[in-house]
Amino acid sequence: MVLQVETSTYEAKTQEIAKQLLAATQENRSFFSSLRDQMRWDDKLLAWAMSNPGLRVQLFRFIDTLPALHSKSEIASHLQEYLGDESVELPAALKGMLNFANPDSMPGQVAATTVGTAVETLAHKYISGENIKQVIKTVERLRKEKMAFTIDLLGEAVITEVEAQSYLERYLELIQQLVEASKNWTPIPAIDEADGELIPKVQVSVKLTAFYSQFDPLDAKGSEERVSDRIRILLRRAKELGAAVHFDMEQYAYKDITLSILKKLLLEEEFRQRTDIGITIQAYLRDSEQDTKDVISWLKERGYPLTIRLVKGAYWDQETIKAAQKHWLQPVYNEKAATDANFETITQLLLENHQYVYSAIGSHNVRSHSRAIAIAQTLNVPRRRFELQVLYGMGDKVAKALVDKGYRVRVYCPYGELLPGMAYLIRRLLENTANSSFLRQNLENRPIEELLAPPIVKEEKNSLTPNSSLQTPNSHFSGAADTDYAEEEVRTKTAQAFQSVRQQLGKTYLPLINGEYVNPPEFVDSLNPSNFSEVVGKVGLISVEQAEQAMQAAKAAFPGWKKTPAKQRAEILRKAGDLMELRRAELSAWMVLEVGKPVKEADGEVSEAIDFCRYYADEMERLDKGVNYDIPGENNRYIYQPRGIVVVISPWNFPLAIACGMTVAALVSGNCTLLKPAETSSVIAAKLTEILVDAGFPKGVFQYIPGKGSQVGAYLVNHSDTHVIAFTGSQEVGCRIYAESATLKPGQKHMKRVIAEMGGKNAIIVDESADLDQAVVGIVQSAFGYSGQKCSAASRVIVLQPIYDAFVQRLVEATKSLNIGEAELPSTQVGPVIDANARDRIREYIQKGKAEAEVALELPAPEQGYFIGPVIFSEVSPNAVISQEEIFGPVLAVIRVKDFQEALAVANGTNYALTGGLYSRTPSHIQQAQTDFEVGNLYINRNITGAIVGRQPFGGFKLSGVGSKAGGPDYLLQFLEPRAVTENIQRQGFAPIEGAE
């Protein structure tokens, strides 16, 4: 069904104004068809990008890489790598230029210079200056053209507190210098005053998240405090100097908290009467109309107007991809027409409330501006309360036409070094060259009726729907969605879960044997590693005799469970997954308190456990169909049957997900399963037990048997009735299990199958083309997330010589900015390690590191729990102890290498092969890493932890483990015996032949 946006009273006037504006912008313009011959190289690049989608992608990737390339040879070789790709159809002029044999050759140098200069020229089109002096020159030129301005500071992402402080200081300096310069500016009534009121000549635009490097909606209170302190300083200084401040809007995750912080701050006595401040609404967000209504209501309460800048929104691709990856509802409209229609709706809403709000309508679409003007004229909106805005370099002709018609126009001027500004440049280029862009359509001489037609909206499903076109196309499996802590009600629910769990601390948990909770001979306290005086629960440890009882119960239950249809077993798994989803916040809280895992990471682990239940249920149903290899006269069936009894020995570091994954894989395959969890995480395993029992696993089929590994674990590993041992833990214990399982015990009539995941010494390579903002953030997460206590965590970073020093400096500052504290606190990024033994062992490794490398950073840590502050060693030898042995703590070795080949050799130079990473924008390096980097899971240009079931099946080789990848299509095969059944179906020479009469 197609909905036409209502043709309102404003439509005729909109069309009339738009035609006048369009006529003014189209004068003296060359046709698109003849552009290529007349244009300079920068224009040619844009024209080619518009006409060739494959070239557009590769060209923009190349431009993104350019800031990291420091020589003409590097530029030339990357040009060839990106644009020489087979998927790219090159225009003749570009093909000729790239036809050089060697990047160091003269033609290579010429190509590098030509394209480098063209990109720099392009950047100058959209970036108003590289320093304040150049910006002042730009704004003085704009003022001569009767245009006002707002200045936005470009730069590297703010990932350290030093950078956040610098961001504030640079803005204070910018305002100071602009105001100083403005004293010599001749007043221009068209932009400096309206309705008898003076308008500040100087305006700056700032981003809230840049005032605090650890800005996070989960830590709403902490983020608000840190950001508000810096904003107050900025607003006070701006008032002293007479400058205006506008707050930009960023990604959707930050929207609610941004609005909340500004609403609170601007109601404070000191700022309540200020009218020289603005906030931003993005029309591509489905909830932006409601947000606008809420802000207008708040402004009515405040009693003093503020500016609302209305824009379409600049992060559409990012928001769409993130929602698809996270299985979240999509916050942006899928169709551009829906955004345009919403933009017009909100424009009307703002202008109809002009007594409470100053409207700033930001667009390059002539129709959008004309619509605003039509409404403003009809409603007699005072001049002070309405202005039009364009981006620097984007809507020059539109802006001039608007000024000529007597409207106040403000140009949004980004400034900063060209190279760090590339991310901004690419957003502008994408916008300029998109098929749906008004600027492009106007350039291509589309009919006026088409350009100015009201937006036609295909009715989208209810707001905030997942975009099905972006779901994984080659997989029917869709994972559980992590909690979105940007939502306030979710944060409230999380806090309530902690209150509820805290009331249950100290309870006793008994082993489950043959469907009964039994009294064990011994109990052990499970402690909160953030505060070891707090007992999370008392766990009963079984004896060897009770282990034998559990084994006999499993043997008795096996024949019945084996015969239970696979579909029925799968349904029990799905029910377990649903129960976990219902108890998600509670399960997260138990993990935070028992194993010290920060809230977000605990929530991700619940998702993983749910995914294991649902994925393995699907997989078992797939395998249960078997395979037919029939031929005429003979039926051949390939089928699977369960192996028997599985002993699961699970670790404490993923106490729910890994315990659940190994257990439910064994169960759904038809095996009876005994779960022996790590002692330090047995309370969480007891919670998993409650869920599996409630889901409907029969007695004896699943049993929960916490006990000492050296006694109960060893007994069950060596038991003659054990068929499969699924183990995750240390290499030492894993190798011992492997050796002991190979020995045939008296009465044993089968070979045992061992599945063992035994850790890693995981490396991330950073080459000279890497995006350092991205690399530093990803490496900090990979190394120090959950205090480095993941088998997938990064413990080595291998950095190429040219960028080594710059990288280490930023890595150190970013790590210094992390919050270390109790896992329960929403601000915490680095919590405790698991227990006193782990803490002492890690400290020993730190001492070894000090003897063989330089300490780049050693952070202090709280005393009351098992805390260790992150430690970074630099100038580490590839053969040092801290480069070779798994430490399992927040300790990172940074190794310097001369080139990429050496980097790969160092990365592969340990006994492990679990996870690895590469940060690079060099296609040949990415290609080589995929074949030569010896790891089970390789991650390129992202962090190396957090594998997702059915998307990144997890597991390694060499001494990292044995067995198929968890969460992948081969995993269940390890718990099954394959069988082939052949039947001769001829009788007296007769057999049915398909298709024959």
Any chance you could write out the topology, listing elements then pairs?
Blueprint: E1 2-4, H1 11-26, H2 32-38, H3 41-51, H4 53-65, H5 72-83, H6 92-97, H7 106-126, H8 132-144, E2 148-153, H9 161-182, H10 189-192, E3 193-194, E4 197-198, E5 203-207, H11 220-241, E6 244-248, H12 255-265, E7 277-282, H13 288-302, E8 306-311, H14 316-326, H15 336-352, E9 357-362, H16 366-378, E10 386-391, H17 396-404, E11 409-415, H18 422-433, H19 438-443, H20 448-452, E12 456-458, H21 488-502, E13 507-509, E14 512-513, E15 516-517, E16 522-528, E17 531-541, H22 544-563, H23 566-582, H24 584-595, H25 599-624, E18 627-628, E19 634-642, E20 645-650, H26 657-668, E21 672-677, H27 682-695, E22 702-704, H28 709-717, E23 724-728, H29 731-741, E24 753-757, E25 762-766, H30 772-784, E26 794-800, H31 804-816, H32 836-852, E27 854-858, E28 871-874, H33 881-884, E29 891-897, H34 900-907, E30 912-913, E31 915-919, H35 923-932, E32 937-940, E33 957-958, E34 961-962, E35 976-984
Parallel strand pairs: 2-5, 2-11, 5-6, 6-7, 7-8, 8-9, 9-10, 10-11, 13-17, 20-21, 20-23, 21-22, 23-24, 25-26, 25-31, 26-29, 28-29, 31-32
Antiparallel strand pairs: 1-12, 3-4, 14-15, 16-17, 18-19, 19-35, 24-34, 27-28, 30-33
